[in-house]
Specification:
With 312 residues, the protein is α/β, with parallel strands linked by helices. The chain is built from 7 helices and 12 strands. The protein has a 6-stranded mixed beta sheet with strand order 1-12-2-3-4-5, covered by helices on one side. A 6-stranded mixed beta sheet has the order 6-7-8-9-11-10. Helix 2 runs parallel beside helix 3. The longest helix is centred in the first third of the chain and has 23 residues. About 4% of the residues have low confidence.
Length: 312
């Protein structure tokens, strides 16, 4: 009797070919298909001129990523009023010089920054399915997981020193101010909640008096940080970390956020409410990936130009 393998083998081969094509697209094209997102946020006092804010996040630089470096350098042509860097600049301990080369033109503008876990520690090889498992179990980062052991320590101090030398404000569990033409802005930042380095008690108290606008900045948009900022009355919170889900399903969206934020707000502009207050929240999908998962699907790498305008 003749075995009937033809149809199943064709189906299996077709699935394998589609999977290979999808992987080639995700790694070879989309992960390098850099985009600029433009967003308008009405948070300024009436009568104040608009401000252009460039947010860069989750660069995850690996040595040799020339296209990413050139694209980041080109963003200086947008001539922003100031730059916000929401962390995870590194994915390679040797990547600091290339990060500074990529951001060099932007460091000519006023700026502020916070760090993320990958600035402090090198990435580790993980099964992507663990993100789904951790979501189902309610475990994210060090919030319920065992502390990292035997990890690579990145030279984050070199990044900090270079950013500081350029005049960017370090917002690691602290506050700072920028004086721009016709505006004075106050910033409150936290260290990365993903690895429990956030210390909100050091910066609590709400927006600063005398500033035209107070902005909250954090790498990972964990709900405890968003609740604290919003309850204190900040009108705008900027964050990164999520990669926009990184591997998304077309017409559905992200499966995970790698924190306790819901997937509906995994990237872009939304709002957050806490204790009767409402804040605008912008989460950048970032422009990089871990060196061990250099793929994106239905979620291209990005930076964001936020135009802050007067309130209605």
């Amino acid at each position: 009797m003749r075995a009937r393998y033809g149809t199943p083998l064709k189906i299996t081969a077709g699935i394998a070919a589609a999977g290979a094509a999808g992987l080639a697209y995700a790694a070879g094209f989309e992960a390098r298909s850099f985009r600029l997102r433009r967003v308008t946020v009405p948070v300024l006092p009436r009568g104040m001129r608009p401000l252009r804010v460039l947010q860069v996040s989750d660069i995850h630089m690996v040595s040799g990523q020339r296209k990413k470096r050139a694209w980041l350098q080109s963003l200086a042509g947008l001539r922003p009023d100031f730059v916000v860097n929401t962390g995870d600049n590194l994915s390679d301990p040797e990547g600091v010089p290339e990060v500074l080369d990529a951001l060099g033109p932007l460091m000519e503008y006023p700026g502020v920054y916070v760090f993320g876990s990958n600035d402090y520690y090198g990435p580790t090889l993980r099964n992507p399915a663990r993100y789904l498992l951790e979501k189902a179990q309610g475990r994210h980062g060090l919030n319920g997981n065992a502390p990292a052991v035997g990890v690579v320590h990145n030279p984050w101090e070199d990044l900090r020193d270079a950013f500081d030398a350029a005049g960017w404000l370090d917002l690691t569990n602290t506050r700072g101010r920028l004086k721009l033409e016709g505006a004075e802005l106050a910033f409150t930042g936290l260290d990365d909640p993903h690895i429990k380095r956030d210390r909100y008690e050091l910066v609590a108290g709400g927006p600063e008096k005398g500033a035209d606008l107070s902005v909250a900045v954090v790498h990972a948009p964990y709900l405890r940080s968003l609740d604290a900022f919003t309850s204190d009355g900040y009108p705008l919170v900027l964050a990164g970390h999520t990669h926009g889900g990184q591997l998304c399903i077309p017409f559905y969206g992200a499966l995970v956020t790698n924190c306790d934020l819901d997937t509906d707000r995994v990237k872009g502009l939304s709002t957050h409410r806490s204790e009767g207050n409402t804040a605008y929240l912008h989460v950048s999908a970032g422009c990089g990936t871990s060196r061990y998962t250099p793929v994106r699907f239905a979620c291209p790498p990005e930076a964001t130009l936020l135009t802050l305008t007067a309130k209605d």
